[in-house]
Design a protein that fits this description.
The complex is a heterodimer of chains A (about 260) and B (about 45). Chain A has about 260 residues and is mainly alpha-helical. Chain A has a domain of about 140 residues. Chain A has a two-stranded antiparallel ribbon. Chain B contains one helix and no strands. The chains are: A mainly alpha (about 260), B mainly alpha (about 45). The interface between A and B is medium-sized, with 40 and 28 residues.
């Protein structure tokens, strides 16, 4: 950070705040006691959301029981997009501040985010067959989510493709930041183009177009999916930090002998 | 009318298998990493 920025005060404080939380050891101390609780709560919310949607939520007047796929498809889609946004933010931190924790987080978000994107694509495809008569159509929403899946796969491959890890982190960060342009395309694809995929049922600004008997299980399932994603990513980051510490401890022990 | 339940069961099945598998893999790796770190620190 340059002296002009430091002398202004606020950005320097922002930088201090970022550096404080980006310390791998501090992250480990913060996350370790939370992980069992987060795992338990995410399990309960996910199970309740899935069972509620599958068994107890009412069938849609038009789509019938096929609308139940919404309770896994929509949360998976939201988590897939949010996960990629997190990946892009970590990549920005990696490029601008060179935080080692941002690199580790980006490496661990990729596989989990790709999994949720895969679930979104498969569940959407299984909804499409009875509703549209086809498992797949080259619709703007479907195609942009497929591109998101490929971006995740590209990031997973690129970050592990170099013998020098730093080169992998830098190349993958650039890919993640460039790929972030796909996120608004996914969100607005149903408005910008005439798509077979239906428009947004729920939006932050426009409220919900579904009744509470369907909205509540969807929100519980969404909360469960988000918490599951965050718990899995935090467990993987903590494991990666421990693996690096183990490698350092073994190296130090070998040098002592 | 088409029977939708095989498609619903398939979508829920894929989701549950993914969530259970990913969670199990993540926590198994976490526990393994913690125990290996404890072993390495005693050296």
């Amino acid at each position: 950070m340059n002296e002009n920025v430091l002398s202004r005060g606020l950005p320097a404080k922002t930088g201090d705040w970022l550096h404080y939380f980006a310390n791998p050891g501090r992250f480990l101390r913060f996350v370790q006691p939370i992980l069992p609780w987060a795992g338990g709560v995410s399990l309960i919310l996910t199970v309740v959301g899935i069972v509620w949607g599958y068994q107890f939520a009412p069938a849609d007047w038009e789509q019938g029981d096929a609308a139940r796929i919404m309770y896994v498809h929509v949360p998976a889609a939201w988590v897939a997009m949010s996960g990629y946004a997190m990946l892009a933010v970590c990549s920005l931190f990696s490029i601008v501040w060179r935080h080692p924790l941002a690199d580790i987080a980006a490496e661990e978000i990729g596989p989990v985010g790709a999994g949720f994107t895969f679930v979104c694509l498969v569940s959407g495809s299984l909804w499409g067959k009875p509703m549209w008569g086809a498992y797949w159509v080259w619709d703007a929403r479907l195609t942009s989510v497929l591109i998101l899946f490929f971006l995740y796969l590209g990031h997973i491959a690129l970050i592990r493709a170099f013998d020098n890890k730093a080169h992998g982190y830098r190349a993958a960060s650039i890919l993640a930041l460039a790929g972030a342009i796909n996120l608004p395309i996914i969100v607005y694809s149903v408005q910008w183009w005439n798509t077979l995929h239906q428009g947004n049922t729920i939006s932050i600004s426009g409220g919900a177009k579904i009744y509470v008997t369907m909205l509540y299980p969807l929100l519980v399932s969404t909360l469960g999916f988000y918490l599951s994603f965050l718990t899995m990513v935090c467990a993987r980051i903590a494991a990666a930090v421990c693996e690096r510490k183990t490698a350092s401890a073994l190296l130090a022990a070998a040098e002592r002998e | 009318m088409m029977n939708n339940w095989p498609f619903i069961n398939g979508a829920y099945g894929v989701t549950v298998i993914f969530l259970a598998g990913a969670a199990w893999l993540s926590f198994a790796r976490y526990r393994r990493a913690i125990s290996r770190l404890k072993q390495a620190e005693t050296l």
